[in-house]
Design brief:
By secondary structure, this protein is mainly α. About 70% of the residues lie in helices and about 5% in strands. It has one domain. It has a two-stranded parallel ribbon.
């Protein structure tokens, strides 16, 4: 079967949009956001007690800036592409804020509807991460960390992703206990996502690579991300 061309630049845009809506759908479902979004979401809920001027997307890209710094320490170097990753983080933050606004109009009173939204959020997040793994454009900091750490230490990228997600889940639990003395914004859905996200990403990646060949549509642009 002949594969269709999937341009890396399109994969980049789709990744940002998919992850933004993945966070928004999870928050709307109310079962707990993904591990990736959980730290920012927890901090956002705490700050809402004092002000609503700082959006979830803003908190997210600030935290991603910190993740990039930590990545540089782990791999022992700083690449120019890491700066572009922060730009991606800002785009991702804006996408989250837009998606939160967009899904606010979706009714989610019934358990069934909430369950559907949660399942959609899982697929959106897994698809988004897989797209990021197939683009040369610097991904958001979370995906960059997984990709660079796995390559630098020669580890399986899907297993690295699962471990990274579980680590963020633990951090979110600690933040919840400190801020609220219980669990707010994370829950069973967060745990489920931590357990199945890596598997979903691997499965979606297999499907995408079976039907598509990922290529660059802008080879001159790609050179700027090889440094």
């Amino acid at each position: 079967m002949k594969k269709r061309t999937f341009y890396a630049e399109i994969a980049y845009v789709l990744a940002i949009i998919a992850l933004g809506f993945g966070v928004a759908f999870a928050a709307k479902a109310g079962f707990g956001v993904s591990m990736i979004a959980a730290p920012a979401y927890t901090i956002h809920l705490k700050l809402l007690e004092y002000t609503d001027a700082i959006t979830l997307g803003t908190i997210e890209y600030i935290l991603q800036g910190i993740v990039i710094i930590i990545l540089s320490l782990f791999v022992g170097r700083f690449k120019i592409s890491y700066l572009f990753s922060f730009v991606t983080a800002v785009f991702s933050g804006l996408a989250i804020d837009f998606a939160v606004w967009a899904v606010a109009f979706i009714p989610a009173e019934s358990f069934i509807m909430r369950a559907v939204l949660f399942c959609v959020s899982l697929l959106c997040c897994a698809f988004g991460v897989s797209c990021f793994f197939h683009t040369y454009v610097a991904p958001a900091a979370h995906e960059l960390f997984v990709k660079e750490f796995a390559l630098h230490h020669k580890k399986d990228i899907n297993k690295t992703k699962s471990i990274y997600d579980i680590t963020l889940c633990v951090i979110s639990i600690v933040l919840n206990l400190i801020f609220f003395g219980g669990f707010v914004g994370i829950g069973l859905g967060t745990v489920i996502t931590a357990l199945v996200n890596g598997l979903l990403i691997a499965r979606i990646t297999v499907i995408l690579e079976k039907h598509f060949e990922f290529k660059t549509g802008l080879p001159k642009l790609e050179k700027y991300f090889e440094k």
